[in-house]
Amino acid sequence: MSNDDDLLRRVAERARSQAPVLAAPVSVVEIAAVEAELGFALPVLLRRLYGEVANGGFGPEYLLFPLVGDGETVVSVYRAECAPDDAEPSDHWPRGVLPVLTWGCGMYAAVDCLRPGGPVLLFEPNAGPDDWADAWFQDSPSLAEWLKSWLSGTGWWADDEELMDEDGEFAEPTPPSICRSV
User: Fold this and answer.
1) What are the residues facing 101 on neighbouring strands?
2) pTM score, two decimals?
3) Longest dimension (CA), the chain
4) What element of type H or E holds 150?
5) Exposure of 57 by Cβ count < 10 A (0-12 exposed, 13-18 middle, 19+ buried)?
6) CA atoms within 13 A on the CB side of 156
7) Between the CA of residue 5 and those of 8, 52, 54, 60, 119, what are the distances in Å?
8) How many alpha carbons fall within 13 Å on the CB side of residue 37?
């Protein structure tokens, strides 16, 4: 059993304990259609979460968006944030950074699908940044580590001090990869 297999097993157990009924997992065909629509591949672990655990509805706090379906999905939120007019990339949301969960108040957890390991970023626009890069923070160096934080209850959402450095100041923002054309 690989580390990802064990992690997915633990995530599935937690998801089943969290929600009385989970959405069916997404098919390989649906995942391929999403990747074609977005113009980039999902990280393997994210693909497996949606394809083996459920089509969203589990995870920290407000729960992962569904990948596909009606209403608010990963794809619909990404389209609204990254390219709201389907022509020009937005000035605040980079291409390839896929929102997977809302924290409310305009904040999102997002997976950078263009970087190895799929780092999880926090988009926090509420401080009124002069530069949109200042609204981005690295939440976790990888999706796997982010999921482990959820499973162990050690993510910042469990304790606001996670976003602070040793001096009690909020950590410096970490800009995601820049918007790139397909």
Assistant:
1) 109
2) 0.83
3) 49
4) helix 143-152
5) middle
6) 17
7) 5, 10, 15, 20, 19
8) 16
List, for residues 109-124, the tens digit of each pLDDT value.
Answer: 999 999 999 999 999 8
Q: What is the mean pLDDT of residues 11-23?
A: 92
The pLDDT tens digits for 128-156 are: 667 777 888 999 999 999 999 999 988 87
Contact predicate 38/78, CB 8 Å: yes
Amino acid at 127: A
Tell me, what amino acid is at 173?
P
Alpha-carbon distance of 81 to 94, in angstroms, equals 9
Q: Would you say 52 and 36 are in contact if contact means Cβ atoms under 8 Å apart?
A: no
Band of residue 16 on the pLDDT scale cut at 50, 70, 90:
very high
CB-based contacts of 94, cutoff 8 Å, min separation 6: 82, 112, 176, 177, 178, 179, 180
Distance in angstroms (rounded) separating the CA atoms of residues 94 and 135: 12
For the residues 54-73, what does the mean pLDDT come to? 94
Which of the four pLDDT bands, split at 50, 70 and 90, describes residue 53? very high
